[in-house]
Amino acid sequence: MAEKLNTKKVAYATAGVFAALYVICAVAFVLAPGAVMSLANNLFHGVDLSKIADNTMTIGGFVIGLVQVAVYGLLAGWIFTGVYNRTR
Question: Fewer CB within 10 Å, N- or C-terminus of the chain?
């Protein structure tokens, strides 16, 4: 029988990775907003996000976004381990 993954460890690790990527993205946006906006436009298949984007970032907005992606990471890790462990 294959070893099962620890749900809490995977969920926390995934949340940490998501949070780290969010911080890297936020720093990139502060340093080069045009380049980041161009990359974001490519992700959305030609939708011009610059027409609806606000080029300012507040500390509050950053913190809310960070918490939000960390929660998404927790959920993704939890779902992943649930699926993985059931298929083992």
Answer: N
> Scanning the structure block, which residue is given the tokens 């995977």?
10
Which residues lie below 8 Å from residue 40, measured CB to CB, with a gap of 6+? 49
Task: Give the whole-angstrom CA distance, residue 23 versus residue 55.
Answer: 16
Please compute, for residue 43, the number of CA atoms within 13 A of its CA located in the half-sphere on the CB side. 7
Q: Could you tell me how far CA 22 lies from the centroid of its own chain? A: 6
Q: pTM for the complete prediction? A: 0.86
15-49 residue pLDDT tens = 999 999 999 999 999 999 989 998 988 888 878 88
Q: 30 is written with which tokens? A: 């502060």
Q: Which two tokens stand for residue 84?
A: 């993985």
